[in-house]
Amino acid sequence: MRFDVLTLFPEFFSATVKTSIMGRALEAGLVEINAHNIRDWARDRHKTTDDATYGGGHGMVMKAEPVALALEAVKAEAKTAPRVILTTPQGAAFNDGVARELALFERVVIICGRYEGFDERIRTLVDMEISIGDFVLTGGEIPALAIMDAAIRFLPGVLGADGSAEEDSFSTGLLEYPQYTRPEEWRGMKVPAELLSGNHALISSWRRREAIRRTALKRPDLLEKAIMTDDERRMADEFKREGKNEKGD
What we know:
Layout: E1 2-7, H1 11-14, H2 20-27, E2 32-37, E3 50-52, E4 60-62, H3 64-76, E5 83-93, H4 96-102, E6 107-111, E7 117-118, E8 128-131, H5 141-152, E9 185-186, E10 189-190, H6 193-196, H7 200-218, H8 230-247
Parallel strand pairs: 1-2, 1-6, 4-7, 5-6, 5-8
Antiparallel strand pairs: 3-4, 9-10
């Protein structure tokens, strides 16, 4: 899989993508990440990529022409049509499902914004717009990293253990169950007996129940779309009631 990132700050990615899971995926040849400087496609001698907005107002807006030329150059190298993404607060919410979808593409292009925003006509160049949350960042580089990191985890051979990505939070619409490691007791807190039983069915049942409990108490908004049986939904409702009683609501 190959990612091409169009940005005004390609150096932002030089060290970050070489660490942890992404770094191992790069070393193994499972993914390729290239950051392209949009300024290289600006046609004036000052390499201008932004200008004042029509109609007046604060801030500068990214020009359409350098972005379009950069995208066309990158797409010209591709053997298959890449998926082109624009990082923007107006985009669809990024989630586990979108990450899985992107992992199916051989090539993905991410356009990172800066300044006050994009010339509106840039939106006509992309396949999808993505937002990683309802907050404002300085630019699209951090969202681009988040998108790549999430998608790369679903590539075969990237994670050390088969199925690791399937057990992460949000994979079934629920938060992940609690996890423990040695020692069995630490500062008076013990590992749940179910996890020490060696009974795989019991462990699986405990993990499922605790994932539902954690989601009901911490992110009840996720339950509506979560994959659960009718009995599990009743269980979630009970956990929510218990949580409200503990808080005195």
